[in-house]
Amino acid sequence: MRHIMAESLAPTDGIRDYLAVQERKSLLRFLTCGSVDDGKSTLIGRLLSDTKQIFEDQLSALERDSRKHGTTGDDVDFALLVDGLEAEREQGITIDVAYRFFATPKRKFIVADTPGHEQYTRNMATGASTADLAIVLIDARQGVLRQTRRHSIIASLLGIRHIVLAVNKIDLVGFDKAVFERIIEDYRQFSHQLGFETIVPIPMSARYGDNVSSRSDKTEWYSGPTLIEHLETVSVDDAVVELPFRFPVQYVNRPNLDFRGFAGTIASGSVSTGDEVVVAKSGKSAHVRRIVSHGGDLSQAVAGQATTLVLDDEVEVSRGNMLVSPAARPQVADQFAANIVWFDEHALLPGRSYILRTETDQTSATVTDLKYRVNVNDFAHEAAKSLEMNEVGICNISTRAPIAFDTFAENRTTGAFILIDRITNATVGAGMILHSLRRAENIHWQSLDVGKHGRADLKNQRPAVFWFTGLSGSGKSTIANLFEKKLFATGRHTYILDGDNVRHGLNRDLGFTDADRVENIRRVAEVARLMADAGLIVIVSFISPFRAERRMARELMATGEFVEVFVDTPFEECARRDPKGLYARALNGEIKNFTGVDSPYEAPENPEIHLKTLGKSAEEMVEALELWLNERDIAENQYDSGGGI
Prior knowledge:
Blueprint: H1 2-9, H2 13-24, E1 27-34, H3 40-50, H4 56-69, H5 86-91, E2 98-103, E3 108-113, H6 121-128, E4 133-139, H7 146-157, E5 162-168, H8 177-191, E6 198-203, H9 227-233, E7 246-248, E8 251-256, E9 259-265, E10 270-272, E11 276-279, E12 285-293, E13 296-298, E14 300-302, E15 306-311, E16 322-324, E17 331-342, E18 353-357, E19 362-374, E20 381-382, E21 392-405, E22 416-420, E23 427-436, H10 438-442, H11 452-459, E24 464-469, H12 476-489, E25 494-498, H13 499-502, H14 514-533, E26 537-541, H15 547-556, E27 562-568, H16 571-577, H17 582-587, E28 609-612, H18 618-632
Parallel strand pairs: 1-3, 1-4, 4-5, 5-6, 24-26, 24-27, 25-26, 27-28
Antiparallel strand pairs: 2-3, 7-16, 8-9, 9-15, 10-14, 11-12, 11-16, 12-13, 12-15, 17-21, 17-23, 18-19, 18-22, 19-20, 19-21, 22-23
Helix pairs in contact: 12-18, 14-15
């Protein structure tokens, strides 16, 4: 019985032939983009309908939904085919990226319908990251808009070189040739710096199908291809197989002592058994002994294939590293320049620490310099201290550990990264690497004979950084000063870094914007790290309002060296004390960006020491600090195995 069922389910020769034909067809990935209400979802719905990708029951459901949610009167609203979220249908907009597959006799397609609203620009970038071609829709009544420009810039940054300029809703301007030509000229003037290889303009009405899959008799003045004709024939260079071999290691597969393989997907190039490969970060080499796939061993694997490589030598390779061609190695550096598209409602701030994630690697990273912001209207390079949501800029980035990469222009897979907020774990930006920085090649760590432990031994203490944070007027400086006197009286070697004092010298060039506050703390954290390396007990007294910067400071220190002290005084009490008269001026609007008034303070969530000062004296707070120290023997010179305290 089981044998009979297997035979009945086996594919016939006709099905096999059909599948073989489909397998041989080329695949084009493209996206639709542009401003709100330019007709992106409607166009994709029309493409699915014209290529017979809609079943009868889907069409019936679409007709019902069109009556309920549609915006096209009695006509079928094709946008509802891809606007699947209820919120999208209610508002008549695209929010998420919708992917759809369809095919014609000549080609297979995967299309990404991306949102037009500015707040969902990050979703547009997601769709563009894997696309070979972009259809930029323009409402013939509106012309080239700001979001048209922004999406075109992002498409260019993400390596898209082929554009279809779909001048949609041409029916609403009476199929006017002059309108079409004016929009073409405006777009070409705007986009000539973007490096697109082809720009093919097509007048169309996605709602009625004019020049989508069949030529319209209402645009006799247009002699170019229909959209389907162009998509079927456009030549998109698929040279990824011709690029140097890149194999980002995603997983080390070791099920037993006799097998050790490196699993991943080949990003570019090809590899054969017997080929020499090099570990990108270490430079160690080995030869490929086996190429293991789901269906058995292969003699060769190419870009896009997921496989496991077994080497003939026990070289050290872990997730985040790459196996590469010995004749064309990637760059390995911890400083580089990159294009950044910023997604988050909280601005990108130079000096703030983020998590940088590549195809498989991950490390802490800091934007060390925002070189300029790109104006999406005229491409002007504008000086800026931060990047706001949906803005594009050129930055220098420094990573905690070196990463292996190619420039994005050379390899879209190994030259791209995302930035992740350390607190919320949200993706806040996308980056495309331009080049490594020469300074990274010229600067190397100098080996020193005298280390932290030796310096601390001489002082008979363990280094530590006590980081006092709290609102202005909370009592930080007073408590820190008394705390140092107590330590000094017992023979400890200490130093105080006070917020006001440091701003008279090291940080005198900084103001009080969010960007300057971040840089203020970054510099102080680096100084504190050097002082701890000198074996000192460092007492830092700074408002340091942002959790991200306090976390950055913590990560600069050795395990256990950073002690966060939250001097917790309510805002009302700080304003009542107002020792420097700053609260009165801030509340009257005379001081801008004052913490607690018109600039936020992010209280510590899990400080090592929590000092609640209300109703207590500074001496009592110091006694609480001493008790905490005595319980942990912080002032004694006893290192743990990790070198911390």
